[in-house]
Amino acid sequence: MRILSWAYLVLLFLFILLPVGALVVFSFQDGRLPVPPFKGFTLEWYAKVIADRDLMAALWNSFLVAFGSSALALVLGFLAASGLARVALPGSVLLRGLLIAPMTVSYLIIALGLLQVFNAVGVRPSLLSTGIGHVVINLPLCFSIIYAAMGEHQRNALRAARDLGAREWQVLALISAPMLAPALAAAFFLSVTFSWDEFIIAFLLTRFDVTLPVEIWSMLRSGLSPATNAIGSLVFLVSVAVVVTLEFTLFRKSRS
User: Fold this and answer.
1) How far apart, in whole angstroms, are the C-alpha atoms of residue 137 and residue 152?
2) What's the CA gap between 20 and 249, in Å, rounded?
3) What is the pTM for the complete model shown?
């Protein structure tokens, strides 16, 4: 039985990691196409990616949109969760439902709705429009994670701080935020991940200054290339580095 369990676990990880492994391996392909057989090792495609100004500009745009929209979504989600956890309003259940409703809506519907609204008010497609769209999809995620992490012990600590004369901003910044640090970090970096990989909203709400997924899509229109594998490998490496850093710093400290 134990052998079957280990075999199932190995097969599961192979199923999950095999596409990523193939992506990384064929990013070093010494040839024009990232397909078997593997013809040899080369760093040529990584050099071309780093030297490509359009790709580097798209990479920087993705950083701006991902971190900017995630930070704003985190602040708004934190304030909304703190308010709804503190006061039991008559319509609090409805408010929570409205806040998490965008999680059930297709990104295409959200993007089309935002595009029509922006056209009506005269806002042109840009990185700012894309950032607003990513706040819309990331705010429900941040709110859900933070609200779920607010236990009764934290509510008691916040009440005690208010009874001792702390102002509301002091309660939120000095007591609530430190107690929720793991949840805040998880919400922020999950939002960064979703924003980093998001394509539909970025495609419809940008024009000239595009994000990395839109730039990769433009490259794929001309056919497969190991350069696209190299970009994907670099993005995967950054994601893994962030997760490993969090695991060995913030999350480990919170468990201890």
Assistant:
1) 28
2) 26
3) 0.80
Domains and CATH numbers, the chain: 2-255 (1.10.3720.10)
Q: Return all residues near 235 (Cβ < 8 A) that are at least 6 apart.
A: 196, 212
Quote the tokens at residue 213.
């997924």
DSSP 180: T
Report whether 175 contacts 166 (CB < 8 A). yes
Spatial CB neighbours of 65, under 8 Å, sequence gap ≥ 6: 127, 130, 131, 134, 195, 202, 211
Helix H or strand E segment including 252: helix 252-255
Looking at residues 143-150, what average pLDDT do you find?
A: 86
Condensed to tens digits (0 to 9), the pLDDT of residues 177-233 reads: 788 888 888 889 888 888 888 889 999 998 878 888 888 888 777 766 777 778 877
